[in-house]
Write a structure and sequence with these properties.
4 helices, UDP-3-O-acylglucosamine N-acyltransferase, Trimer_LpxA-like_sf, about 15% helix, lipid a biosynthesis, alpha/beta, 35 strands, Udp-n-acetylmuramoylalanyl-d-glutamate--2,6- Diaminopimelate Ligase, Chain: A, domain 1, nine-stranded parallel sheet, EC 2.3.1.191
Amino acid sequence: MKLSQIYSILGLEFSGDDIEIVSLSSLALAQRAQMSYCDSPKNTKYLADCKAGAVLVSKDMVDIVKSRAVVVENPHLAFAILSKHFSKPLIREFKPSNIDESVTIMPNAYIGSGVTIGKNSLIMPGAYIGDNVTIGSDCIIHPNVTIYADSVIGNECIINANSVIGSDGFGYAHTKTGEHIKIYHNGWVILEDCVEIGACTTIDRGVFEPTIVRKYSKIDNLVQIGHNCEIGYGSILVSQVGLAGSTKLGRNVIMGGQSGTAGHLSIGDFAKIAGRGAVSKSIEGSKEYGGYPLMELKEWFKTQARFLREFGNKNSKKDQ
């Protein structure tokens, strides 16, 4: 839409060049026909090289963006409002699909527009394959799996029953009076080759870019992977792991049951997180961690032993 229309949606008075804005994008990737936003001083480092035709900023950042600035009180909230207007349609124009003749599609599976499915793949009953989804060769999509539009599934992948690939991420901007304004996610999900997804696991699509699960990763039942996460090559996530948005796992990371992360952090290659470990900041690879606050596992065991010696003895005396 025209930039003047965007000003109107945000209740702003327009002046200047009325350029066409085709989509929203991140500061790092935005091009001339796109709009981005900056809502934090820590992200101002990206503004100097940002190519976006327009950038939502607060008034204290105007001097950095200059003529491209769209000045608003709350850039994050303004972005959320606009994300609805630039969201992808749930129902797309029809395009023919490309499904290999060796593919087996069982009754009551839904195949959307423009879908590609490779040789010898199996789509079981009740599966939903959205528009423009790509599924490689020798994949098994179990009953009632939902794969949202634009998702990319590699070769030899297994997705177990009731899993959801590519749903909207959990992201909201907040008004002064407490309303939560939805951020529509226009990214997608990529599962590389030989990935297995357990039953009832959910993987959210990214805001602008993909959520990625690298080759040979194995994900158990009931795991939640937030938007824009990246799961490294050969990683293993055990049941009930939860990853907040933009978590980056290196290769061969192992996370035990019910462990989790805060968002926007990274875990190094070959790290191991014990069950119920809570990762609240970025950590090095090739080490074992546990507990909360997170520490190296051997230190966690020592801390637990000291705790039991101190408080266990007191409780025993009380019981006597």
